[in-house]
Amino acid sequence: MVEKGSVRHKEFIRISHERCKMYNINYNQIYSNKILDEKELFEKMEENRELVLAAAPIMNKIYDFVKGSNFFSILTDKEGCILNVIGDEEILSEAFRFKMIPGAYMDEENIGTNAMGTCITENNPIQVSAEEHFISAYHRWTCSGCPIKDESGKIIGTLDLTGYSEQVHSHTLGMVVAGARAIENQLMNNKLRSKLLTEKKQQKLILDSILKGFITADMQGFILSANSFASELFGCSNDELLHMKTSNILKDWNSVYKSIKEDSSPFKKDVDVISKRNILQLNLTVYPVKNQNNEATNVILVFDEVKKQRKSIDSIMGRHAIYTFDKIVGKDANFLQVINFAKKISDSRSNILIMGESGTGKELFAQSIHNYSERSNGSFVALNCGAIPRNLIESELFGYEQGSFTGAKAGGNPGKFEIADGGTIFLDEIGEMPLDLQTRLLRVIEEGTVSRIGSSHERVVDVRVIAATNKNLKQEVENGTFRKDLFYRLNVLPLRLPSLCERKGDIKLLLDYFMDRISKKLNKKKVHIPLEYIEKLVEYNWPGNVRELENYVELAVNTEMVPDIHVLNFEESSNKSIKIKSAANVSSVLSLKEMEKEHIVNVLESTGHNITQAASVLGIGRNTLYRKLKEFEIEC
After folding, report:
1. Which of 371, 342, 339, 324 is nearest to 493 (CA)?
2. Mean pLDDT by 10 residues, the chain (636 residues)
3. How many whole angstroms separate alpha carbon 91 and alpha carbon 488?
């Protein structure tokens, strides 16, 4: 990292200015010399899809830290082409007037010295402020840029944070460097996850291709996995098998278990197994899975030599919905009416629009409707329209053909509508969908056909659409941000979910439910909440609804105590104790370490110097917090 004001930094700026003169950059120019048109930008976005998706949540976190301080964050590709921009409206409007927009190239050859272009050239994080920029129009900015690299060290993009020049501070560059490293880690994790998923699919394909039944179970007999042939053998779905115990299908499980415990060596025996229709005589091979102490922890059961004709099952492709109506907790009369209405409309072919505040369980209801319908054996495909960059939504929804743009996959890629054929597509945050894509979505809904990008071929799809929003779409229609005809197409069967404040009678029930579930999941004791405190929780307004209540219970279980009521009111507690100061307020006062120390002190004060609760609020372990207290010489 090149420290601002250092000899090395000054030399980088001087050499960069010399390059700008060689490139014939005009000191008085305002716009980049290279800005992509819409088609070129689409191809660029598709080429960098993985980078854009990995960077989006990290850019949001950085922006949340400086929100309201007139900063904006930029992501570019390896050539300096802007891929994504987020920030405060006032400074963004000014930046857009300079055409600092997606598709604009910020490399030195097109716009002169700046943090993004110069950090690519120098292969180093760098901060460029005021007159250090070559063109005069950028003298108002201070920008901190850092290269983003792949596992081989090759630059694949840059991350930048830009504000007004009077806000320049070295800690901003440190924040950007941390963000770039986080993006690199996310890309690496995504690559490893993709590799593991591919290997897992390959292993499953191999197992599914073998005409033997494979079942994995723990030593208590709970079934952990099963291949397709095992499902056929026992005449049930894979999901049903995973909810069974070995004793449900194997008459002599106790004998098998005893043999494993006595010897823990592989063995074979003839057994009777129980299918849905009758009892089958099969040969069983048992392979114990041992830990480092040579103790059997799991067991692999291989069933062979089928004596009866097997039941065939259809292969179900795509994502599955896991929630059902019986998993929805609530006894409030109005809420039960909502559930009953949702059940009644489940089998309708009409579209559903689920409305409700954040945290009320819109996707839970969407999945339950799907599982209650005749489409339950089909795919349930969800897409959050507000979480994917605008340039990628179209290809995510409708897919693309091979060669339709640079970087397109060989053979093309199906969209969500194709994947959901025969099932349900859930469009969350539908109010965030761009207007031009609303037109394409309306056509798919009206005609029941979809065409991939780069193709004139229309594919017929049978998809039930469930949309959800926390916005007032009628108001959005009046504002001109949502198509009226699409609204009426989606709002055929409106389903409004009540906020938690509208079903206060369910709060005690939900507290008990989450306490039981979370304590088991975390293997921790339940926390007793006194009746008088429950009354306070019932009176609380719960702006985050059921999700906020669940988070509160998880905090209680993790800290093994009842959190103070003020931790629920984030806005109030932030103003009182742990509010993070904006970059503009602290840039001339605190270093990164000082900011960290002050934040820890504030959190300790807000939690009454309770180490366990403070560590939970900070998102770190107790031992880590103790090290921080020692490092910063904080008395507790």
Report:
1. 342
2. 74 95 94 94 93 93 89 96 93 92 96 96 95 95 95 96 88 93 94 83 73 88 88 82 87 82 77 69 84 85 57 37 88 94 92 93 94 87 83 84 59 83 92 90 90 84 93 92 93 94 94 92 89 90 90 88 66 38 39 69 74 72 75 77
3. 37
Structural contact between residues 116 and 128, judged by C-beta atoms closer than 8 angstroms: no
β-bridge mates for residue 74, sequence order: 85, 160
Rounded to an integer, what distance in angstroms lies between the CA atom of residue 473 and that of residue 496?
Answer: 13
DSSP string across 265-291: S-EEEEEEEE-SSSEEEEEEEEEEEE-
Residue 468 half-sphere exposure toward CB, CA atoms < 13 A: 22
The answer to whether 402 touches 412, Cβ cutoff 8 Å, is yes
Rounded distance between C-alpha atoms, residue 268 and residue 230, angstroms: 17
pLDDT at residue number 571: 42
CB atoms under 10 Å from CB of 439, counted, come to 12
Domains defined for the chain, CATH in brackets: 7-191 (3.30.450.40), 210-304 (3.30.450.20), 325-498 (3.40.50.300), 506-631 (no CATH)
Cα-based distances in Å from 336 to 174, 358, 371, 374, 537: 52, 19, 18, 22, 22
Unique residue bearing structure tokens 């929804």:
397
pLDDT at 410: 56
Q: Phi and psi (nearest 5°) for 170?
A: -65, -30
Helices 507-522 & 545-559 angle (0-180, nearest 10): 50
Is the sign of the CA dihedral 546, 547, 552, 554 positive or negative? positive
421, 464 Cβ separation under 8 angstroms = no
Q: What interhelical angle do 38-47 and 49-66 show, nearest 10?
A: 90
Burial of 276 (0-12, 13-18, 19+ CB in 10 A): exposed
Residues 408 and 401 sit within 8 Å (Cβ to Cβ)? yes
Q: Are 404 and 453 in contact (CB under 8 A)?
A: yes
DSSP state of 81: B
574 DSSP 8-state letter: I
Which tokens sit at 290?
Answer: 């041992």
Amino acid in position 18: E
